[in-house]
Amino acid sequence: MNIQLNCETCVKTKYHPNTTNAQWKGVWNIPDIPFRRINIDIRGPLPETIRRKSYLLVIIDDMSKYAITIPLEKTTGESVVETLNARVFAIYGIPETIRCDQAS
Fold it and tell me: Which residue positions does the secretion signal occupy (predicted)?
């Protein structure tokens, strides 16, 4: 079964694993150290948990592709920074670069 042809997200975004987007090719080199560059995004609102969390902060390391998801109650800048400091930077260190889509 070809997952890319049956995955709704893959079909909508026209994802194919053997192709690259030429405009991005070579723009970002893969870091040589884990957590040197991370990508962050917020997903939600999702169904609220017992602890009143309805958003997920998603962090992906560019080198290893290791993903971390952290439930959030609110998505304010202050809340995100506090969460990153306590749950990511305190464990993995402060990255040189943080990429996000600026809520687009």
Answer: none
Contact 16, 29 (CB under 8 A): no
Q: Where are the chain's structural domains?
A: 30-99
- Written out in words, the top-level CATH class of the domain with range 30-99 is alpha beta
Mapping DSSP to helix (H, G, I), strand (E, B) and coil, where does residue 42 land? strand
For the chain, counts of helices (H) and of strands (E): 4, 4
Longest Cα–Cα distance in the chain: 44
Nearest to 64 by CA among 98, 87, 37: 37
Identify the CA nearest to 56 among candidates 35, 101, 64, 45. 45
pLDDT in tens, 17-69: 555 554 554 566 888 899 999 999 999 999 999 999 999 999 999 999 999 99
Distances (CA, A) of 53 to 47, 49, 84, 102: 8, 5, 16, 21
Residue pointed to by tokens 């970002």? 28
- Tell me if residue 101 falls in helix, strand or coil: coil
